[in-house]
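Notes to self after the Tuesday call (sharing in case useful).
The group wants a holo model before anyone commits to mutagenesis around the pocket. I volunteered. Ligand is adenosine-5'-diphosphate. Logging inputs and output together so the record is complete.
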Amino acid sequence: MSGLAISARGLTRRFGELTAVDHIDLSVEKGRIFGFLGPNGSGKTTAIRMLCGLLTPSDGNVEVLGRRIPADAEPLRREIGYMTQKFSLYTDLTTLENLRFMARVYGLGRGERRRRIDEVLEQFALTELRGRQLQAMSGGQRQRVALAVATLHRPTLLFLDEPTSAVDPENRRDFWEKLFDLSEAGTTILVSTHYMDEAERCHRLAILERGRVRRDDSPQALMGALDGRVVEVSGSDLRTLRAQLMVRPEVVSAAQQGSRLRVLFDAGAEAPLEQLHSAAQGHTCQLARPNLEDVFMAATSGGRA
Amino acid sequence: MSSPGRIAAVAHKEFLQLARDRMSFGMIVMIPLVQLLLFGYAINTMVRNIPIAVVDLSGSATARVITEQVRVNQVVDIVSYLHTPQQAEAAVIAGEVRAALIFPRDLARRIASGDTVGQWLVDGSDTTVSQVLLGLRNMPLQLQAGAPAGAYQASEPSFEVSLFFNPERRSAVNIVPGLTAIVLTMTMILFTSLALVRERELGNMELLITTPIHPLELMVGKLVPYTLAGLVQVAIILGLGHVIFKVPFAGGLGTLAVATLSFVAASLTLGLLLSTIARSQLQAMQLTVFILLPSILLSGFMFPYDAMPEVAQWIAEAFPATHFVRLVRGVVLRGAQLEQLAGDILWLCAFTAVVLLVATARFNKRLD
Ligand SMILES: Nc1ncnc2c1ncn2[C@@H]1O[C@H](COP(=O)(O)OP(=O)(O)O)[C@@H](O)[C@H]1O
Ligand SMILES: [Mg+2]
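Result:
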């Protein structure tokens, strides 16, 4: 078997006139954390649903864990775990009741069931919360339960659709620690997010915009490709300067961040730092380390395209 | 692990949710209770103080004694004394009285030969009233003041009764068993029609269809707790109906259980089918009402099945409630045995199987 957990070619999904996912190609290596980064409506959920076999693609070929989707979706279900974007566990049941229900639905034997439930309770620090109904839990606690349920049957591939959108930053870090543990243990993870800091933790990242994959590489490579194209300007009257810069064709974006203006240049722009020096007399200019936000802006042409 | 395990898992989960949902849980108990009391007492209040007229052609003391006995049971209220049967008939037709009690000229001779002592002219257009007056037909009489009650045992009913307008005779007692069909139709279909839609609206369905569960396992699992709820409801209605309204129970409990289970299963699967059609909980409720109305009107609960036009009878046959009204009256009132009810029970079982398969086929584990 190949080293790919997911391989998609020309994956497409139309809803009437709208093309939610537009001919995307994906290669997700086994054991990696692969990220979908994109704004709301960019097609992350639709793509994940197709990869899980929940939505029939309008076009394209998909293989997940060596099985053709959607034809072979049913046997695939035991091998994947899916954490939906909208919370989908039973909030009127307790942690333990949800776990027991899902363990039986996944067909775990009696002994196996008890062992696995104890394991995930331990693993996700839920032992104290096992008797509590989910409706009485915080967002972070609920997401831990959801992850516990998604991993209960030891899937080799996990789909996590914006798993941390209702979680505060500190709990988000803890959540990611759990993901790295799972990844370490060999689980392939596909996670969607619109948080840049989260995206940066992935081994590989696909940037989605309006149903298309605009970039697809490791976060480091994506950011490295912008070396020399991001300049930070500090000084007075940055708003006027920004307006002047934005009309230039070689400037992709200019965003004010506190007392600095972060300017992203087009790939073809020549000597960005020098250009800015002359354009912004009286300001201090220096090259900055590109971040994922810059990558995202560059990939989507600053949202102007 | 196998299907039984998954079905049990779903059933257990549904049971926990049902037990925690005070609203639904309350409905299981309150709907039969409220309906029973409403229907039961509405009927009971109507059987008091029915206005009647008396025509005494015999002019005897015996007639006066009998009249007094009829009066004291409070069912009737004697509003006028008339002179001829023709006047009495006119009063009934005019709606001034609901009935007239007529003592013939030869009252003494009739008593001597153990014959009926008088005749009731009854406005049969109100079935409940006529039914109550029919009940007076066999009332035990004492012919002289001071004689022991029931001293006069006529070889035939003590009164002869003529029903005007509507010879179809229905017992108020029919209402209570029939009510079980209506309450079950209402609650059973509603519960399951909401069952799948609610999970879809709450988002649980997206997770559930990602698991290896088979749609049939999901469906059957969901039926189990509500089946128990249905049995509880029937027990409430018939039990309290027996205690409060003296509804007789002629048949066997086993037969009743089989009939009830087959009807509950049919209603629940029908609800599941609606649930696969409805896009929202509101739509599910509307579809339920769509089934409920003809079930009430055509099942024989409100109007006698035999009096309906043939086309309406054909339509009525398509509703499980029609079959259950027949079954439950058969068991409860006539003490019918399983063999005699086999036709309707088999129909309900076949209905359940077909609808369950259609619902399962309609339920697909996809979101598109
Ligand atoms: N079932 C559906 N029917 C019609 N349009 C849909 C449906 N699901 C998603 N869409 C549309 O497809 C686009 C992509 O949505 P989605 O995949 O949910 O994006 P994301 O998860 O990135 O926010 C959106 O414009 C959304 O409105
Ligand atoms: Mg989404």
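Two things stood out.
The interface with chain A takes residues 1-2, 5-6, 8-10, 12-13, 16-17, 20-21, 202-213, 365-368 of chain B (CB under 8 Å).
The mean pLDDT of chain B is 83.
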